[in-house]
Amino acid sequence: MRHSAKLQQLVATLFMMLMVCCVAPFAKADTVYTYTGNAYTTCGGTYCVGGPYALSVTFDTTLTGNALDNLPFTNITATITSFKFTDGSGLTLDNSNDSVIGSPDIEISTNASGNIVAWFTGAYTFPATTQMQTNWNSPFSFFPGADFSETTPSFAGDFGFLSNNPGTWRMVSTTATPEPSTFLLLASGLLVFRIVLARRRGSA
Fold it and tell me: How far apart are CA 151 and CA 157, in angstroms?
């Protein structure tokens, strides 16, 4: 009877742990957008060698769900948690490179499904000698738009450029996951449960 009571008590404790896991804090979910550009058609310097080169962009925003539906042209840079601009040349501007850290400018407009339909997104070094940008149907700069990379101002050196042929955006909504402490709590409860069961079988 004593063993049975202890087992019932343990089951109750484990149940409480599971309930805590169910209501434990969840990590914030982000929405990830990726852009795949078309090959540059105009070049200068090193961009005229090798290739083809094309702009690729990835950024994470804390905006999710309805907040991204039918969004008018809006600067969402403050919501960006990570970003990366590449073009196949070896040039990368992102928020994790210690040698070259780009300052992003992310401005977008979306449709009813949250897909980007107009945009001005770029990353730049300080001073703005190197920049990577895609800009289509926005109120700014090249109209209707362009993709480009450059390592010297005003396209005076190495650069790749494309106009009138926008790439495509893809949206990925990430799922919120429990904090690591939640998993630790659940794992501890299961381990204790297994140990007690093993001891109970050994004493039977």
Answer: 7
- The reported pTM is 0.72
Among 11-20, 142-151, 168-177, top mean pLDDT goes to: 142-151
Distance CA 162, CA 149 (A): 9
Pair 79, 61: CB distance under 8 Å: yes
Q: What is the pLDDT of residues 92-124, one digit of tens each?
A: 999 875 555 567 999 999 999 999 999 999 998
Residue 131: in which H helix or E strand, if any? strand 131-136
Strands 54-61 and 92-94: unpaired
DSSP letter string over 137-174? SSSSSSSSEEEEEESSGGG-SSEEEEES---EEEEEEP
Paired tokens of 63: 């905006």
Contacts of 80 (CB under 8 A, 6+ apart): 59, 60, 61, 104, 106
Alpha-carbon gap, residue 125 to 20, rounded angstroms: 46
The residue ranges of every structural domain in the chain are 31-173
In angstroms, the CA 73 to CA 107 distance is 7
The one-letter code for the residue type at 184 is L
